């Protein structure tokens, strides 16, 4: 959510706006969504939306995140390999869904719209990276992974190929691919020499 802007939000009104922005995003795509359409769909004024969000990108990203976050819980099985496998598999399944296809669209639009690009990075991708970091840090504390592990590089090794396929090569993203990817990444992560 954005920082404080105006009066505190009415929870029901907020839910209505976020639901409207998400529904319109799925129906029409990011480019076609406007603050006017969101306001009309949510039965609120544009002024109400602008009181709480600075622009269309912010409200659309919040609407997307409020729906998407429920689909991607952070596992804690006691095994970092299992946690990352579950997390990466759930992420990949989500990206293959209609909702997940929106991420590709937002990433594409974000190349032309710096406000949207920054909103996507700070409000969708950074939180996902923090989730992965949490799982890897837990594993280091438990002694499953080396204390000198480069966690940021490890995150790139595990999750980067998923987005590479999604956005560039168009290669198939399925559970078998994720299993092979995570297995290969962990072979490297576990055998990497300490710093």
Would you kindly provide a brief summary of this structure?
Helices cover 72% and strands 0% of the residues.
Q: What would you note in describing this structure?
A:
The chain has 195 residues and is mainly alpha-helical. It has nine helices and no strands. 72% of the residues lie in helices and 0% in strands. The radius of gyration is 19 Å and the shape is elongated.
Write the layout of secondary structure elements.
Elements: H1 11-28, H2 35-42, H3 46-52, H4 56-68, H5 80-96, H6 98-110, H7 114-142, H8 151-169, H9 175-191
Assembly level: single chain
Q: How many strands, what sense, and barrel or not for the largest sheet?
A: none
Number of helices: 9
Flag low-confidence runs.
Answer: 1-5
């Amino acid at each position: 959510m954005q920082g404080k802007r105006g009066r505190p939000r009415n929870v029901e009104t907020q839910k209505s706006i976020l639901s409207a922005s998400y529904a319109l995003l799925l129906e029409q795509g990011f480019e076609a969504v406007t603050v006017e359409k969101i306001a009309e769909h949510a039965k609120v004024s544009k002024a109400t939306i602008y009181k709480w969000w600075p622009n269309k990108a912010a409200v659309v990203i919040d609407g997307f995140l409020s729906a998407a976050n429920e689909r991607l819980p952070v596992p804690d099985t006691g095994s970092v390999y299992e946690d990352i496998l579950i997390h990466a598999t759930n992420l990949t399944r989500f990206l293959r869904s209609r909702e997940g296809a929106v991420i590709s669209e937002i990433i594409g639009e974000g190349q032309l719209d710096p406000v949207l690009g920054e909103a996507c990075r700070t409000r969708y991708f950074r939180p996902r990276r923090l989730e992965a970091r949490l799982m890897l840090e837990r594993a280091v504390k438990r002694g499953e992974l080396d204390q000198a592990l480069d966690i940021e590089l490890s995150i790139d090794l595990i999750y980067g190929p998923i987005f590479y396929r999604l956005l560039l090569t168009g290669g198939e993203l399925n559970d078998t691919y994720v299993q092979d990817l995570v297995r290969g990444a962990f072979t490297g992560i576990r055998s990497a020499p300490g710093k």
